[in-house]
């Protein structure tokens, strides 16, 4: 069994790949802030992407996100558009980029921490 293919290390790597992809999408949005008619985009949240990738193998496992919980509500966004039809709000994109960068730093820290635990267990941290 390869511990880097399952568990927290694999999840941290998946999270970092998702965050890298999100940064590319957000930078594309910022780059097109002056393009008439451009509509900004974003990735599906990481939790939903992971949940969609999971296969329910037992009836007692959790169901789809938001399906059974009455507190769950769909997010409603009203797109802000400028006179030329561009929907990019630079302040919103800057907040998303900052959130993504913070989450990336956290994922990198967790990944390093888990690898350090493996090195310690193998006696290589002397």
Automatic annotation (TrEMBL):
This is Flagellar basal body rod protein FlgB. The keyword NAD does not apply. Keywords: Cell projection, Cilium, Flagellum. Residues 70-83 have a biased composition (Basic and acidic residues). Residues 59-86 are annotated as: Disordered. It comes from the Bacteria. It is found in: Bacterial flagellum basal body. InterPro entries: Flag_bb_rod_N (IPR001444). Residues 12-39 form the Flagellar basal body rod protein N-terminal domain. It comes from Roseomonas fluvialis. The keyword Repeat does not apply. Its main location: other.
């Amino acid at each position: 069994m390869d511990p880097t293919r399952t568990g927290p290390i694999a999840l941290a790597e998946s999270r970092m790949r998702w965050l890298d992809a999100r940064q590319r999408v957000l930078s594309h949005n910022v780059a097109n802030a002056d393009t008439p008619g451009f509509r900004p985009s974003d990735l599906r949240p990481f939790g939903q992407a992971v949940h969609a990738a999971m296969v329910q193998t037992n009836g007692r496992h959790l169901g789809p996100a938001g399906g059974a919980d009455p507190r769950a509500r769909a997010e409603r966004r009203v797109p802000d558009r400028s006179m030329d039809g561009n929907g990019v709000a630079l302040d919103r994109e800057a907040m998303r980029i900052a959130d993504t960068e913070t989450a990336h730093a956290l994922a990198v820290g967790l990944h390093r921490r888990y690898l350090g635990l493996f090195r310690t267990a193998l006696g290589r941290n002397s």
